[in-house]
Automatic annotation (TrEMBL):
Source organism per UniProt: freshwater metagenome
InterPro entries linked: rRNA_ssu_MeTfrase_G (IPR003682), SAM-dependent_MTases_sf (IPR029063)
PANTHER family found in the cross-reference section: S-ADENOSYL-L-METHIONINE-DEPENDENT METHYLTRANSFERASES SUPERFAMILY PROTEIN (PTHR31760:SF0)
One of the record's GO molecular function terms: rRNA (guanine-N7-)-methyltransferase activity
Name of the protein: Unannotated protein
HAMAP family documented for this protein: 16SrRNA_methyltr_G
Length: 212
């Protein structure tokens, strides 16, 4: 298990400080996305009605720890993207990455396209594909998922999309370790960024020693 934990207290770090620190040059775009989530996202049922007040801490900033596992210039598929979490957040925090959002439901794809248009001023290009992960024939260096499926099922549905040498990265909660049981090559990363709550990511690297 990797453990990246610089000392910090999220309660002592302001929202604006985090925006400026983790989204340099994309401050306007991430604010526009947050606004879209708390309006259209709630209206269309992609975000719970009570989530508006905590959209930054619980949803946007919560997606940042996984960016620490992504090398410069990598390609990334965010499957079951839903409202764009974590894919859009990753794209704005790391404009060097090539991010593709993959979502099977038409109404959510429509939402994602509108969200991408809302942040277009930031100059970050994000592709949106409608489809089930199982049916996508393309591949990427990394595949991310947040609240999509248990780890075993997630690996089965997405493993073909991960390039050799790349990894499946699943954002998980406090019970993350339990989901690793039986998953060959799985590693738990506990990542603590300054001003951000602890993030847990399970990674499975695709290489010669890991079978599908």
């Amino acid at each position: 298990m990797t453990n990246l934990q610089p000392e910090s207290d999220p309660s002592q770090v302001s929202r604006e400080t985090n925006i400026n620190k983790y989204f340099p040059g994309q401050e306007g775009a991430i604010r526009a996305y947050a606004e879209f989530l708390t309006t259209a996202g709630i209206e269309r049922g992609l975000i719970g009605p009570r989530e508006g007040e905590r959209i930054w801490e619980r949803h946007i900033f919560n997606c940042l720890p996984v960016t620490q596992l992504l090398p410069q210039g990598a390609s990334l598929f965010d499957i079951g993207s839903g409202a764009g979490l974590p894919g859009i957040v990753i794209a704005l925090a790391r404009p060097d990455l090539k991010v593709t959002l993959i979502e099977p439901l038409e109404r959510r794809v429509e939402f994602l396209n509108e969200a991408v248009a809302a942040i277009a001023a930031g100059g970050v290009e994000i592709e949106v594909i409608r489809g089930r992960a199982q049916d996508v024939k393309k591949s990427a260096d990394f595949v991310t998922a947040r609240a999509v499926a248990p780890m075993e099922k997630l690996k089965k549905m997405s493993w073909h999309m991960v390039k050799t040498g790349g990894s499946l990265l699943a954002m998980k909660g406090e019970s993350a370790a339990n989901e690793m049981v039986g998953i060959k090559g799985a590693e738990l990363h506990e990542i603590k960024l300054e001003g951000i709550e602890l993030g847990r990511v399970i990674s499975v690297r695709k290489g010669s020693l890991i079978s599908a």
